[in-house]
Amino acid sequence: GEDVEQSLFLSVREGDSSVINCTYTDSSSTYLYWYKQEPGAGLQLLTYIFSNMDMKQDQRLTVLLNKKDKHLSLRIADTQTGDSAIYFCAERESGGYNKLIFGAGTRLAVHP
Amino acid sequence: DTAVSQTPKYLVTQMGNDKSIKCEQNLGHDTMYWYKQDSKKFLKIMFSYNNKELIINETVPNRFSPKSPDKAHLNLHINSLELGDSAVYFCASSWDGNQPQHFGDGTRLSIL
After folding, report:
1. Per residue in B22-40, pLDDT tens?
2. Residue of A nearest to B42 (CA)
3. Pick from A84, A77, A42: which is nearest to A58 by CA?
């Protein structure tokens, strides 16, 4: 079946950039998503990218997509303590009814 | 106004009991979903309904039965609860099969 992989932990200093990486297996996937989950909370849609795009920028967030390598990244500029959370990468399974396959999540810790 | 709301937020019950979790969305979306997040934060889809019709039914024990009385509601009933059912259950909704999914805050189910 389809699979999405992420590194489990990332620690950065406040003010630095964070880069969270993700690889996926479904080369026909049309949409890829980034969700944020704060402790005890639900999933917040951060951004998403269509598969015919290479990059998408939204304020401090930059998404890069390398379709050839099936690699997706999320860059957070000027990382703040409020960015500490778990970040989930997800791919929309091709041919399905908007079925999302999630990675295990990357826990981002921001320290002073 | 909460877009996707789940009740209850916390549910603590004994093994063998039957319980229901309710979900409502006020976004006018056509499609709703149930996900399970285990203790390691791994998220997996369980069910999806489009306009009250079941369209995704993953390998889930038949003790779990979703019910959609109308397109704004998708409830999850669980019979004969087991210890392994302890998890956070998330409801989500989207416009259709190509649009991002918006999640509720989750229901934390604990089985004693």
Report:
1. 999 999 999 999 999 999 8
2. A104
3. A77
